[in-house]
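Hello,

Our lab assistant flagged a job as stuck in the queue for most of the afternoon. It eventually completed. Since we weren't sure the result was trustworthy after the delay, we are filing this so someone can double-check. Below is the sequence as submitted and the structure that was eventually returned. Let us know if re-running is recommended.
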Amino acid sequence: MLLSFVTLLDDVLLHLFAILPLSDVLHVRQTCKRMHILTKLRTVWCDKFLLEVLSKNLPIPGDLLPFEELSGDDLEWRTRQALLLDRGWRVRTLNDPVSLTLSPPKEGATQVILLPGGHGAVTVHPHSALLWLIEPTGKSKYSVKQSAEWNFPVAGCQVVRDSAYSDHIAIGWMEGPAARVVVLSVGPGHPFQLLGQSKAVNGTLIGLHDNFVLMNVVESTGDVGTKGIALIDWKSNDGGVAILESRPEFAKYLGFTFYESHIIVLWEAHLGIFPMPSSIPAQSTTLVKPSQIYALAHHVQSPVGFSLCRPRQLPGTPYPGSSSEDNGYSCISVIAGCNERIWGVSNNITRSILFPVDKDRTMFRLAKIPTQVEEECSAMSIGSSGRGVWMENGNVRQCTPREILGSGTQFKTVDFDDYGKPLWRISRSRSEGSCLDFDDGLGRIATVSGNDIEIVDLVGVEKV
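-- returned structure --
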């Protein structure tokens, strides 16, 4: 007697679903009520998510929630979103992008910040910051609406996002005796909720990472007698400051990133590795000297990007992706514009690979791999996975993680693709003064050019 597919036990069917291609599982779902129920089970999408997303080291869409808290519907959406974006990214034929135009009632924006998880964005204006909520309303359809406004106490405040991927932002103003840095939540249901604040030192707000606010101290004062990058613990707010030492020969500050237990700071002429302080003594200033300093062969300039070329992992995932160790090296790519002529080409991107030689002693090495980009790069945003976007003359183009040989060692680093057809073209033909942000998990691009603010979703899959 021959058995039909529908007579198989549930356990057998679930095993089959685990090895079937995702498209086949979705087709089976349409056959009957029983298959619809079985293909919705969390165990099916746990298997798919682990095999199709994590094992392939694809960027993870959505919030970085603990794995055990994710429902079957959520895992299905993340799996489908990641595969659709990956397929389109590799073959360069993405679905018709969905463009959202933000129309603030006030003056033009100077910055746009995409929020983790794809819930919304913050636009920064001369006198305020606006919070926008983005909600899916169907396949390739979204609604966007202004949710809240935070008015600056003085014009031209600086706004930065938490580089630890929380839903926090910091806003700083440096004028007058009431100079402050405030940390706000912009998560769902908490529009501009005040979390904490600290007294600002004489400098520019450049970053927020977990409990640390970072400021670029450009002038010595009575409170801070050394120039450099100031770290302030906004949660304790006890008056302690740690200064990452800077020197005149380092030239102008360009950017920073956190790497394991270190802080990497890039200047025009040097790159410094600093140990991250575990705590800062109250009511005192602590000078942190670099553990290693690299003099750059060529001076660099903005725009700047950093990437581990390794997707962020969900807390509590059953196993990490295979890219957690690339041939024994945990690497980071440092990409910046070059303000000197290399090989006779004026508009170049210079790229370096930073990796630890001896993890026990936390010794680092730098491998320099120049990359030619014929057009001038005016803005750049690169995710931790190595996927990113860059802008030239109003065209938004993609960059992708690639294996490359440098200094006799195989690395995974960011490579710049020039395929003729850009991912997107901003409304204005000129990109001077433009800024760019990118969510490598969702494939969402945000651009500001003049008074035009656009958010582009490259996939636009319906959330189940």
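-- support follow-up --
The delay was a queue issue, not a problem with the job. The result is valid. Residues 152-295 form one domain. Helices lie at 10-19, 22-29, 33-38, 42-54, 72-91.
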